[in-house]
Design brief:
Largest sheet: 5 strands, antiparallel
Number of strands: 13
Distance between the termini: 35 Å
Order of helices and strands: HEHEHEEEEHEEEEHEEEH
Shape: elongated
Mean pLDDT: 93
Number of helices: 6
CATH topology of the largest domain: D-Amino Acid Oxidase, Chain A, domain 2
Strand order of the largest sheet: 8-9-10-7-11
Structural class: alpha+beta
Length: 263
């Protein structure tokens, strides 16, 4: 019903039809049926970000990587105090979109957001024989784990670990990813060497939606808490902020996404 109301094309298919679409599915794993979304695609988030950075630089944007911001002064213009710099940098506007550290930077300004990390895991491995790998993306709804093909690699991703830290790896979460890959595509990845294990935070807010728009302080705007929908909402959120910063009315209704709901 949710997919239908959203206008997403989908088909309820039998196990036989699913195996025709994904012929490398393990024949010994029981499969009752599946939902096929023919318009869905798989993307490489890192590659997208790199291409976007290059395009922005061509338009005149400048990036300062490996740079620590100590604090923000909200004024007109807004100022960022950079670690190791004797004087602040002035900007017409500052958009706060620094993930989890954003809460710490905002706290001295009187903005307290209940931003919390929900960690996810992924395992990526080289595909030795493409015929044994998925053709696109497969979702195991029981374990909420996705299996995707990214070029010459297969990536298994999932889990929702609340709290903890990015450096503490939960072995049970990793083993679940291996199990799901073994269940559906046991020969898809070379797991003996060259495996990349990743853990990362998805900053979320307790009521679900992100905080987007004015902070209530001059020169400071917010773009935070998108959770597991970060990439899906990234371009739309950027469009909304660009319109607001330019004094234009956003194309979508953003009522209820402001910071005032946490005050």
């Amino acid at each position: 019903a949710v997919l239908r109301e959203a206008g997403v094309a989908f088909h309820e298919i039998s196990a036989e039809e699913a195996r025709q679409i994904e012929p490398a599915l393990h024949p010994a794993t029981p499969l009752a049926g599946a939902i096929h979304l023919p318009q869905d695609e798989v993307g490489n988030c890192r590659q997208f970000a790199v291409i976007l950075r290059d395009a922005a630089e061509q338009l005149g944007a400048r990036f300062a990587f490996n740079t620590a911001v100590d604090r923000i002064d909200t004024a007109s213009p807004a100022r960022l105090w950079i670690a190791g710099e004797p004087a602040p940098l002035a900007f017409d506007a500052v958009v706060m979109c620094a993930g989890l550290p954003s809460a710490e930077l905002l706290r001295p300004l009187g903005i307290r957001l209940p931003l919390r990390p929900v960690y996810g895991y992924s395992v990526s491995a080289h595909i030795p024989e493409p015929v044994h790998a998925p053709r696109s993306g497969v979702m195991d709804e029981r374990f909420k784990v996705s299996i995707t093909r990214l070029g010459q690699r297969v990536r298994v991703a999932g889990s929702a670990e609340i709290g903890g830290s990015a450096v503490e790896i939960n072995d049970a979460a990793i083993q679940t990813l291996y199990k799901v890959l073994q269940d559906w595509f046991p020969s898809a990845g070379r797991l003996s060497s060259g495996v990349q294990v990743w853990k990362g935070a998805r900053p979320m807010l307790p009521d679900g939606p992100p905080v987007l728009g004015m902070s209530g302080l001059p020169g400071l705007w917010l773009n935070l808490g998108h959770g597991s929908s970060g990439w899906a909402l990234a371009c739309g959120s950027a469009r909304v902020l660009a319109d607001q910063l330019a004094g234009r009315e956003p194309a979508i209704d953003v009522e209820g996404l402001g910071v005032l709901r946490f005050r």
